[in-house]
Input
Amino acid sequence: MKTITIILSTFLIFCGQIKAQNKISGKILTAPQNLTAPQKPAEFATVALLNAKDSSMVKANLTDLNGKYEFEGIKTGKYLIAGSMVGYKRTFSPLFEVNGESVQVPDIQLVATSKELSEVTVTAQKPFLEQRTDK
Output
């Protein structure tokens, strides 16, 4: 009887852990510079899984060469994805809920940031005394 109880409890714990293994996946793209250019995958962009309640980071990852990312072993709850890359604005996904099934997040599109620098003036002064080696 004791052996059956141990086997049954081990089986139930194992099944509970399998169910808790939720998977979140998606893709991050870069917005084209003009309307005729195609979207390109954001290679090695930073992807953060954020808790929807307080925006605290749960996990972070990088995209692959195709702009795809994946998070595994996520607990049940409401989340959102933040995608960022150098030269692009940080972009957020809509809220989604994880409840025991794999979730496919809609594609996130990063938009390039452009900053116009103000005028730069370079000034120099020649020293009054100058030392030179003899020639």
Notes: The CA atoms of residues 53 and 78 lie 7 Å apart.
